[in-house]
Amino acid sequence: MRILVVEDRRRMAALLKRTLRSQGHYVSIASNGGEALTLGRSQDLDVILLDVALPVVDGFTVLRQLREERLTTSIIMVTARDAMSDIIRGLDLGADDYLTKPFALDILLARIRAVSRRGQTVTTDKLEFEDLLLNRQTYELLRKGRSTPLTRTEFALLEKLIRNAGLIVTKDALIEAGWGLGAEVSENSLHVFIRTLRHKIAVEGEAQLLHTARGIGYTLKARVH
């Protein structure tokens, strides 16, 4: 895989580069947010590892701008910013995962493998439920003429729900779909992604199709009785 490491601390960047290269990945380095925007746009990347506290442009701004430009590359925030508000902000802006420092390198490698698997099981370019259309080619959600970009994680979760529309999909099944088998992902993280999906599925005045099965999971239904 082609991986961009966005890290301003030289020792950390060198460690990540050496570790990732030992796993057979092609690695490039950006030492500030400006370089991250340039390299993130210009390279055919599979994964971006993005710090938050960066010179020139901070990581949250980099993330927001890349997602506004509809970049679908998987982005993992790798940062010492571990406050719940920061984690929620990163995920809401479009990060596929959020890993706080310090971390074990094996955990990072597992997270990279997990995001690289997302979307690989989709066998058709388009999935539909009611007036929702999920486009696999562009990672967009279409509804009532409105086009909304999705991250790979959001896409994987919504694909699982659409393929099981009308049924309750358990939290464990959604975590497996979004992050991979055996992933250590909290229900709170899943809840953040579900909340974001709800905002993308229905704007003001539109019927909400994504509902909670309290204590069990979530379901896509046209109406809940």
Structure description:
- This protein has 225 residues and is α/β, with parallel strands linked by helices.
- It is 41% helix and 22% strand.
- It has helices at 10-22, 33-42, 59-68, 84-93, 105-117, 152-163, 171-179, 187-201, and strands spanning 2-6, 26-30, 47-50, 74-79, 97-100, 126-129, 132-135, 140-143, 146-149, 169-170, 210-213, 217-220.
- The strands form three sheets. The protein has a five-stranded parallel beta sheet with strand order 2-1-3-4-5, with helices on both faces. The chain has a four-stranded antiparallel beta sheet with strand order 6-7-8-9, covered by helices on one side. It has a three-stranded antiparallel beta sheet with strand order 10-12-11.
What's the short version?
The protein has 225 residues and is α/β, with parallel strands linked by helices.
Write out key terms for the chains shown.
single chain; 225 residues; alpha/beta; five-stranded parallel sheet; four-stranded antiparallel sheet; 8 helices; 12 strands; 22% strand; globular
Per-chain topology:
Layout: E1 2-6, H1 10-22, E2 26-30, H2 33-42, E3 47-50, H3 59-68, E4 74-79, H4 84-93, E5 97-100, H5 105-117, E6 126-129, E7 132-135, E8 140-143, E9 146-149, H6 152-163, E10 169-170, H7 171-179, H8 187-201, E11 210-213, E12 217-220
Parallel strand pairs: 1-2, 1-3, 3-4, 4-5
Antiparallel strand pairs: 6-7, 7-8, 8-9, 10-12, 11-12
Helix pairs in contact: 2-3, 6-7, 6-8
